[in-house]
Design goal:
Blueprint: H1 14-27, H2 34-46, H3 55-72, H4 75-85, H5 89-104, H6 111-124, H7 128-139
Length: 150
């Protein structure tokens, strides 16, 4: 946290990995809608993993994550990088749940979003039962399970 009480991100942080996952979900259909951006904001302000992020920092954090995703290129490389920064199952489940919440925010999941979520599931080594549970929570805008560190 910086001197002004605002969070500053380095590319290796868990928060950055969670942001990148949400950005990928929002962009996976080729269009980031206003509803998806609003869902990212909602997720950030509701989750303790993002505690300390101020609204004024959020736009910059989203832009930074989007730039990281754009610069990385290949989806499998990006997903591997995210998985390395989220090594435990609870963090990976949270990331998947956040991605599903963002993807479902506009109440539609085109094939490109489903392909992204399937790639995320495979990269994170999540079972179908876990994914179904997380997608159901996302669809209901229900709180996602807490991670062990929070």
């Amino acid at each position: 946290m910086g001197k002004n009480g605002h969070v500053h991100f380095s590319d290796e942080t868990r928060q950055a990995a969670l942001f990148e996952t949400m950005i990928l979900a929002a962009a996976s259909d080729g269009n980031v809608s206003k509803i998806e951006v609003e869902e990212i904001y909602r997720c950030v302000f509701e989750r303790p993993e993002f505690h300390g992020i101020h609204a004024s920092d959020l736009r910059q954090a989203i832009a930074h994550a989007a730039q990281q995703v754009a610069n990385a290129g290949d989806l499998s490389y990006i997903l591997s990088s995210i998985a390395e920064r989220l090594p435990d199952k609870p963090s990976r489940e949270l990331a998947f749940g956040l991605a599903a919440s963002v993807a479902w925010a506009d109440r539609r999941t085109p094939p490109s979003e489903l392909r992204f979520l399937k790639a995320l599931q495979e990269t994170f080594d999540l079972g179908d039962d876990d994914v179904a549970r997380l997608f159901e929570l996302a669809g209901e805008s229900a709180p996602l399970p807490p991670t062990e560190s929070h």
